[in-house]
Amino acid sequence: MKFNFLLFCVTFFWKLKVFNSSTLNTESLEDAYEPELRIVGGEEVQIEKFPYIAQICIMAIRICGGTIIKKNWIVTAAHCTFRGTLQEINVRVGSDLNSKGSVISSKQKIEHPKYDDSNLDYDVAVIELSERIPDNIPAKPIRLQRKGEIVKIGAVADVSGWGLTNETELQEPLHLRSVSVPIISHSQCADWYQEEQIKEFVICAGYEHGMKDACVSDSGGPLVHSKKLIGIVSWGIGCARPKRPGVYTSIAHPEIRNFIEQISGV
Length: 266
Hints:
Layout: H1 5-19, H2 26-32, E1 43-44, E2 53-58, E3 61-70, E4 73-76, H3 78-81, E5 89-93, E6 102-111, E7 125-129, E8 143-144, E9 156-161, E10 177-184, H4 186-192, E11 202-205, E12 222-225, E13 228-235, E14 246-250, H5 254-264
Parallel strand pairs: 8-13
Antiparallel strand pairs: 1-10, 2-3, 2-5, 3-4, 4-7, 5-6, 6-7, 9-10, 9-12, 10-11, 11-14, 12-13, 13-14
């Protein structure tokens, strides 16, 4: 999941090289992915169970996840859109296959005005699509957590995406994966992340022993509890390491929720 800029760049340019390969085909890609690989500790899932998930692409290459919050609006992490131009960014929806689905271009992208690319503060952005998502594909908006709404510590949430299956492997799965992780308290998260500041506009989810998590290029994707979007995959140290839970932008934080509502009307 975690936003590691060096690994993000390596992954992106590796994907760019593969994308430009004249020998690339679906069969060779499928053979290249070992069947046991998955979002760390998770399982393969179908798009019908996660119809709200989107793929954020730059120059037709998937770099991040996103969430459909309205038929013409996507929410994602600001670090996913910050370096791309509006002309380069498009969105894929309606498929559980990596880099497949209906492609829709972007009409506008807006990062949170307080977003800080040096430390990922206020890591949220919204993308307005150039057209509404068609009704005849498995792509539907999800409800958002209300401002100030609290999710109990220990509640289990689902995070999904097509990101790396571990932090040393550059191959991504072909199929959408999901894993369930418990919400942990700010104080516990801060205790485990002593070298990092856990701020009020994030939530943390994961296990003390690690083993289950999202990974690089799951960034921007959804953390969902009780059929509501409660978080956006933002950052962390490594993937599924002990005492290094996932850190998510909190949808319920007033400055995050107000930003989404003011821009998208959701």
